[in-house]
Amino acid sequence: MIRHLITLCAAIAVVCSATPLSAQTAPPLGNAPLTRIGVVVRDVAKAAQVYADIFQLAAAPAVTTVTIPLAKGNTKVKRAVVVLPNVRLEVDQPDGKGPAADYLKKFGQGIYRVGFSTTDPIGPKVAQLQERGGTLTAGSTTGSFAWVDLSVTLGTTIDLQQEAGPAPASATPPVGDRVVLGTTPLSHLGWAVTNADYVAKSFADVLGITMPTVRDYKPVEIPPNYPADANATLRLTSWKQENTGIELIQSLGQTNWTDFVGKHGKNSAPQHLAFPVGDRLRETVELFQKKGASWTNGKVGGTYEYLDFTETLGIIFELNGAWK
Question: In whole angstroms, what is the distance from residue 156 CA to residue 151 CA?
């Protein structure tokens, strides 16, 4: 019996040692704030001017050149940073090969990476993401940042940075004479998905959280002149990610969500940035339409509306009004 126990213990030790220590001991990402959203554009100087206008910034963000170490060699991007109360938007124009250039070539302007901040060393977290099918595309396991491509499951690249994240910002809808998005906290980052249960489970696995409940929602609100299925319904889920939120939306029937995820040829892709605008919803929608945005979701008198600025900003807004 003792001999068998010794043999069993030795076998267990071998199995445990087969898993890298870094992957065993890495704290989960579930409590890591989502602090950066990487947007790729064709002309960052031009986009910076539009960002200043739409977000009502005091001045257009400066454009700098940033060198990014890749798995092999380096690449550069021209970058403008839009700082919001709880996240920052890193607007990149590729200057050579790399993840930003690859995304732009395949899908056009849009959100190509999502960044989390952690005070822990990133090596163990990178190892965990690699075990879940991720591919290291930039940075390193020993430095202060790394980009891990998880397009197969999450539809995007996870950007890990060893740094202190911002304190949670108040998400109280703005009131008064106008809405200033530059001083309004992002309420959530939304994904369009083809299978909400699968992507929710994948996120739960990657973040180390309990799988969020997926629920059915109807009816879909469709604006005039947008071709969509009037009988479409949704399956969606959302959760708090420390300083903001994450939302997954699956459309059962052709809508702006199916159009978006179909364009990206994936089962999942980051789609929209959501902001509360209180009782200024219709006013803000009309203003954004005058500035060139396409109205792709919502209805007059509803509680939310989507405005598509992909061709100028590389992003889609979800504007949320006051709940009635």
Answer: 5
